[in-house]
Automatic annotation (TrEMBL):
UniProt-listed InterPro entries: Biofilm_reg_signaling, CHASE8, EAL_dom, EAL_sf, GGDEF_dom, Nucleotide_cyclase, Rev_trsase/Diguanyl_cyclase
Domain named GGDEF: residues: 224-357
Domain spans labelled EAL: 366-620
Domain of life: Bacteria
Species name: Janthinobacterium kumbetense
Keyword annotations from UniProtKB, A to Z: Membrane, Transmembrane, Transmembrane helix
CDD domains for this protein: EAL, GGDEF
Transmembrane intervals: 20-42, 150-176
The protein's name: EAL domain-containing protein
Database matches in NCBIfam families: GGDEF
PANTHER family referenced in this protein's UniProt entry, alphabetically: BIOFILM ARCHITECTURE MAINTENANCE PROTEIN MBAA (PTHR44757:SF2), DIGUANYLATE CYCLASE DGCP (PTHR44757)
């Protein structure tokens, strides 16, 4: 099973962004520190200059007086007082004639400047600053001070600034690291949500697509093959509907655990949605190996699942496709496995099917049929045929069954056995059934107005499972009967036994509402849907219709079943119709067994409304065909 991992590209991209953010923060802090140090240098320099000027200005009056009095001793003492200012390295008092008048030097190595310039001069290389101030009345005062105090203050400020910068960078590093850690956790969680199914903890569809693409690329490099099994749990919706979605999720988890337990560690198992799982097998030598894996899966799912006090039996339909024999890319390989899976489901479920090219042709034909069927309702390509039902006692036509036919402009004549399942799967059956009901009622109303339905008891229309579940069915029926003005008693709705048993309580309630409106009800294909006798006696029905599969075996193996059905129906005061009657021997047996009505090719094939109109006008008596010649 594939473990969900962080995508390397995303992680590297995140680390690179984090490093770039740290470098940017460091550069900004360094730039800010440098600007602060430069600003402090200019500030200290300006302060130092002010201090030096102030000292020169303070000494100037006394120095001027000493020179006027030509008192060298006083001038020397005045300059010697500068010893209290540790930053002053040298002081000179010049006479108006430019000769030194008095001198002070902190060190003997300090020599007198040869030609000092007036104003303030700073020599950063020498580490000193000098100022030459002209005195009132002539002469000048020269002061030279060391820049060491300025450098010391600047060094202290720079050290403090760098310390603050380092602390700020450390905090920034911690914040970026913490943010990156949180982002990494968020990325991993998002990756988990995006790539892992939360119910089964298996890789989901997104991870499946990546894993299958990687497996195909590796198969190309190694010149090997990859097998894909797509399995869909049969009738899983019933579990959700009866026990709830919580139990459905628990069942999916149990199924995934069994799959993980029996398959190899190198096999990749994914849940791609709903009740669908896929298994990637590599390397897969041939279709026989994949068939063996499919049989193993069916076997492990055959054992019951214990779930909240219930024992649930789960089966699966599995489709198998093989790379590179069945497809050359991920999408086609998955589609082919899905096609094979639906083929297995249509074959009766709880089995597997290996993809074959003709399956794809059938799938494409089905898609074309669905698209054309939607247009057929608008393009008037659909029409009805009617098959008479004969009373075995009187030999008269007592009913007709409306049967839909379709001549597709694109695909030609199509059998109802082919397009009705497509209509049911695609949901078109509701609109299709409404059209059949409306068309049949309009035609029956026209026959009724023409006085051709005197001997007819009903016009039968089939009701599909989707129509039975449609909440608007009753409103549609009432609207159609009101529109056509057809007497309610002339309409008979046929519900197959399988549809009836799909949701017994809801369908019984529907049938009661239909019967209250005066509509006749019949159970079609009786004997094939495993209906319970306890339900049957409570159903508000008027008639049973024996399935053609039992009539086909008459006389012979089907005699016991048909006789039992007729006897049971009559005991419940129900009429019996046998469909699929094709021989006189079948007619004779049914007549002797007490069957009420028959329908089949022996009497008449389904015909157009115009042909049936002519037959009704003929008022034919069929009694001569219901008795064997002596």
């Amino acid at each position: 099973m594939m473990a969900p991992l962080m995508l390397p590209s995303a992680q590297l991209r995140g680390d690179r962004i984090a490093r770039l953010n740290l470098l940017a923060a460091a550069a900004m802090l360094a730039m800010a520190s440098l600007l602060l140090i430069l600003f402090q240098l200019f500030s200290l320099q300006a302060s130092f200059q002010r201090t030096l000027r102030i000292q020169a200005d303070m000494l100037a009056p006394a120095a001027t007086q000493a020179m006027r009095q030509d008192n060298r001793l006083a001038a020397q003492q005045l300059l010697a007082s500068l010893a209290a200012a540790p930053h002053i390295r040298q002081a000179l008092l010049y006479s108006p004639y430019g000769t030194p008048f008095a001198r002070y030097a902190r060190s003997g190595s300090d020599t007198a400047p040869t030609a000092p310039r007036s104003g303030l001069q700073i020599d950063y290389l020498d580490g000193s600053a000098a100022i030459l101030t002209a005195l009132p009345g002539g002469g000048a005062l020269y002061l030279r001070a060391s820049l060491a105090p300025l450098y010391a203050s600047l060094a202290q400020f720079a050290a403090f600034t760098l310390l603050v910068c380092l602390c700020a960078f450390g905090l920034t590093f911690l914040m970026v690291r913490r943010t990156r850690t949180a982002a990494l956790h968020a990325e991993r969680h998002l990756h988990y949500l995006a790539h892992v199914d939360p119910v089964t903890q298996l890789p989901n569809r997104h991870e499946f697509n990546d894993a299958l693409a990687y497996a195909l690329a590796r198969a190309d490099r190694q010149d090997s093959s990859v097998g894909l099994l797509l399995l869909d749990l049969d009738n899983f919706k019933i579990v959700n509907d009866t026990l709830g979605h919580h139990c459905g999720d628990q069942l999916l988890k149990l199924v995934s655990e069994r799959l993980v337990a029996i398959l190899r560690g190198t096999d990749i198992i994914c849940r791609i949605g709903g009740d669908e799982f896929v298994v990637i097998v590599e390397p897969a030598d041939d279709a026989s190996e994949m068939a063996s894996v499919a049989r193993k899966i069916l076997a492990v799912l055959a054992a019951p699942f214990a779930l909240e006090g219930h024992q649930l039996y789960v089966s699966a339909s599995i489709g198998v496709s093989l790379y590179p024999f069945d497809a050359q890319d991920v999408a086609t390989l998955t589609r082919n496995a899905d096609t094979a899976m639906y083929h297995a489901k249509h074959q009766g479920k709880n089995r597997y099917a290996v993809f074959k090219a003709e399956m794809e042709l059938r799938a494409q034909r089905r898609l074309r049929m669905e698209a054309n069927l939607r247009r057929a309702l608008q393009n008037e390509e659909l029409y009805l045929h009617y098959q008479p039902q004969i009373d075995l006692r009187s030999g008269r036509i007592v009913g007709v069954e409306a049967l839909i036919r379709w001549h597709c402009r694109d695909m030609g004549q199509l059998s109802p056995a082919e397009f009705i399942p497509v209509a049911e799967e695609s949901g078109i059956i509701v609109d299709l059934g409404r059209w059949v009901l409306q068309s049949a009622c309009r035609q029956a109303a026209a026959w009724c107005k023409a006085g051709l339905l005197d001997s007819l008891e009903h016009v039968a229309v089939n009701l599909s499972a989707c129509q039975a579940r449609d909440p608007g069915l009753m409103d549609d029926i009432r609207a159609i009967l009101d529109e056509t003005q057809l007497p309610h008693g002339l309409l008979e709705l046929e519900i197959t036994e399988g549809v009836l048993m799909d949701n017994v309580h809801a369908n019984v309630e529907l049938m009661r509402r239909l019967q209250e409106t005066g509509i006749h009800l019949s159970i079609d294909d009786f004997g094939t849907g495993y209906s319970s006798m306890s339900y049957l006696k409570r159903l508000p029905i008027d008639q049973l219709k024996i399935d053609r599969s039992f009539v086909h075996d008459l006389p012979g193996e089907g005699e016991a079943i048909v006789t039992a059905i007729i006897a049971m129906a009559h005991s419940l005061h129900l009429k019996v119709v046998a469909e699929g009657v094709e021989t006189l021997q079948q007619v004779e047996f049914l007549r002797k067994a007490g069957c009420d009505n028959v329908q089949g090719f022996f009497f008449a094939r389904p015909m157009t409304a115009a042909q049936l109109t002519a037959l009704l006008l003929e008022r034919r008596d069929w009694s001569t065909r219901t008795i064997l010649p002596a």
